[in-house]
Design brief:
The complex is a heterodimer of chains A (about 260) and B (about 325).
Chain A: E1 2-6, E2 9-11, E3 32-34, H1 36-52, E4 55-62, H2 67-76, E5 80-85, H3 94-104, E6 112-116, H4 127-135, E7 139-149, E8 152-158, E9 163-169, E10 173-177, H5 189-195, E11 200-203, H6 205-208, E12 217-223, E13 232-233, H7 238-251
Parallel strand pairs in A: 1-4, 1-6, 4-5, 5-11, 6-10, 7-10
Antiparallel strand pairs in A: 2-3, 7-8, 8-9
Helix pairs in contact in A: 2-5, 3-4
Chain B: E1 4-8, E2 11-12, E3 15-16, H1 20-34, E4 37-44, H2 47-56, E5 63-68, H3 77-91, E6 95-99, H4 102-114, E7 119-129, E8 132-139, E9 144-150, E10 156-160, E11 179-183, E12 194-200, E13 213-217, H5 227-237, E14 240-243, H6 245-249, E15 270-274, H7 280-283, E16 291-296, H8 303-306, E17 309-312, H9 315-331
The chains are: A alpha/beta (about 260), B alpha/beta (about 325).
């Protein structure tokens, strides 16, 4: 099977974020990492390849810095990479991001496209499903298991409140992968070395521009959310805090 | 033509998903502020659609559509998106609202793409800014909020996060709203996925929903062996241990200990969150707790937005003396 894994570079989970001057996005001078659900998507693609053979290609859209997620993907075992490289890709909505990916892969023949179920920055949870519709492929979301069978695949979808559902579907298809579907591997030293010689195709904004439209939704303003609750902050040494907290548990929360 | 808001309520396995009332409540507020007409629709197959439509018709809405398509008897994204596309193309509502459930996440982006429209997903609220309708959504795992507007043409689509509005505050109508049955024709050949059994994994051993005291642990615990410390605190308090998703994903605690959108929704007297940053998916599962206490090393962690009592600090320094103090208090 030939599998494409869509990956995104997002700010590190505990990186302190600051707003840019116009208050519409964050300042870019932070540390980045692979969007966590995308790491699980990559791992699942590698496992499928190990089981059934084939090829894994990683793709991302973003400025030069985002090449790092492709390098990590190649080091873990992906065969090649596609980088839609332009700072402008960061500001695209889910619809346009999916259009850009579709344009970049129109010469390729994938059996499956994986994305993480959502990104840690925008959190749209849309790009994979939109991409499926643009490609004209079926899709399934929040996937916890994939089994190849005659004429297609059987997937396990996560539903709410602890329920799951099996779905049979034909290929090619798009799947959005849930975190925790597998255990992530680490890149080996050999893998990191080999990654340097693996093919990485760059795609410019100009090459896909004709496929894009205007963003149909616009971030007017980004801001620190207003607190809806008044939080009482406890300070002091650990011992003092422990004492204060137990007083509160006794007198206010009344659980002691 | 007058502007219309259409709320598509969620039907699953023949039952109305009650979270639909939250979206309906949000839509009633928008309708009151804009003067737009509010209508609702439920999609499925057979008598159950009419029954749910009648239930929704008790709410203050102008009309309810019972959308019936034989191929929508079991949920598939192909059938649902195709059926709603037909209906929306015909009715041309200005704004379509849905709850941000797993089912809606599965078909709504497909629906909007097929109509060449966009979806503002997972909104927590809305605001009128002159003539402009702004939707508020969380970004960067809740560290920021964003005001998002539609740039293109209607219909506009948005989904509301669970808990964004109070479902129990839906206004009822003075009389039942008219229900109109609409037959939609989606051919079986258009459906590519074959949905099979719906099931639960091995029986859930732990029912967190009944717990009065929950001590919950997140990434901040760093290593599996440190879970024991949290267990000691839970035991001292007479509570149960729970966790955010990453802890269960790592196998440090079983899945039935997970609180959040993909785990259990809890409402204990005390929810003590240790090293939990407070991603949206976790918060929806515990914000109903009567008292929330959070210990986290990051003062900007979103968990502090909803905590009653917050402590910025190292949980490994605070929890051991806390266990001792709790034991003392209990012994007294």
């Amino acid at each position: 099977m030939k599998i494409l894994v869509c990956m995104k570079q997002v700010p590190q989970k505990d990186a302190p974020l600051k707003l840019n001057e116009t208050g519409t996005w964050i300042r870019e001078d932070v540390s980045y990492e692979v969007n966590e659900p995308d790491a699980y998507a990559l791992e699942e693609a590698l496992r499928q390849k190990e089981k059934h053979g084939g090829e894994v290609v990683v793709i991302t859209a973003g400025p030069a810095r985002s090449q790092q997620v492709l390098r990590e993907g190649l080091a873990k075992g992906a065969d090649s990479a596609i980088h839609l490289e332009d700072p402008g890709f960061v500001g695209l909505d889910a619809f346009n991001t999916a259009k850009a990916f579709a344009a970049a892969i129109k010469e390729e023949n994938f059996d499956l496209i994986f994305t993480g179920l959502q990104s840690d920055d925008y959190g749209y949870a849309q790009t994979g499903v939109v991409l499926a519709e643009i490609m004209g492929w079926p899709h399934a979301t929040i996937i916890m298991q994939i089994d190849k069978q005659d004429g297609g695949i059987k997937v396990k979808r996560e539903l709410e409140a602890g329920f799951f559902q099996h779905v049979d579907m034909p290929l090619p298809a798009v799947l959005t992968i849930q975190s925790g579907i597998n255990k992530l591997r680490y890149a080996t030293l050999i893998g990191i070395k080999q990654a340097k010689n693996k093919p990485l195709r760059k795609v410019t904004m100009d090459e896909v521009r004709s496929s894009l439209g205007d963003n149909m939704q616009k971030i007017e303003k980004l801001y620190i959310p207003q607190k809806t609750k008044k939080t009482e902050m406890l300070t002091g040494s650990p011992a003092e805090i422990a004492k204060q907290l137990v007083e509160k548990l006794k007198n206010e929360v009344r659980v002691l | 033509m007058a502007d219309t808001i259409l709320v598509v309520v969620e039907q699953r396995e023949g039952k109305l998903n009650r979270v639909s009332y939250e979206t309906l409540r949000g839509a009633q507020s928008i309708a009151a502020e804009t003067g737009w007409t509010l209508e609702a629709a439920v999609l499925g197959s057979g008598a159950v659609v009419g029954e749910i439509a009648n239930e929704i018709a008790k709410s203050k809405v102008a009309k309810v559509y019972a959308l019936d398509s034989a191929t929508c008897v079991n949920y598939t994204p192909d059938a649902y998106a195709a059926a709603l596309k037909q209906f929306i193309t015909d009715k041309k509502p200005t704004l379509v609202l849905m709850p941000h459930t797993y089912q809606v996440r599965d078909f709504a982006p497909k629906l909007t793409t097929s109509l060449n429209r966009t979806l503002i997903s997972d909104a927590t609220g809305y605001r009128k800014d002159g003539a402009k309708l702004i939707f508020v959504r969380q970004m960067f795992q809740g560290k920021f909020a964003a005001d998002v507007s539609f740039a293109g043409e209607s219909p506009f689509f948005a989904t509301f996060q669970t808990g964004a509005f109070r479902g129990d505050q839906v206004e009822n109508g003075s009389a039942a709203a008219p229900v109109e049955k609409v037959i939609l024709d989606v051919p079986a050949s258009a459906i590519r996925n074959k949905p099979l059994d719906i099931f639960k994994e091995a029986k859930q051993a732990v029912d967190l929903t009944q717990a009065e005291i929950i001590v919950s642990v997140g990434r901040g615990i760093k290593e599996q062996k440190n879970i024991e410390l949290v267990q000691q605190l839970a035991t001292a308090l007479g509570g149960v241990i729970a966790a955010s998703r990453p802890i269960c994903d790592s196998g440090w605690l079983p899945m039935d200990r997970q609180v959040g959108s993909s785990g259990q929704t809890v409402a204990p007297k005390l929810y003590l969150a240790l090293g939990i940053s407070g991603a949206i998916q976790h918060i929806v599962g515990m914000k109903g707790a009567r008292s929330i206490i959070a210990i986290n090393k990051d003062s900007e962690a979103p968990i502090f937005e909803i905590a009653d009592i917050g402590i910025v600090g190292n949980l490994f320094e605070i929890v051991p003396p806390l266990i001792e103090e709790v034991k003392k208090a209990k012994g007294a």
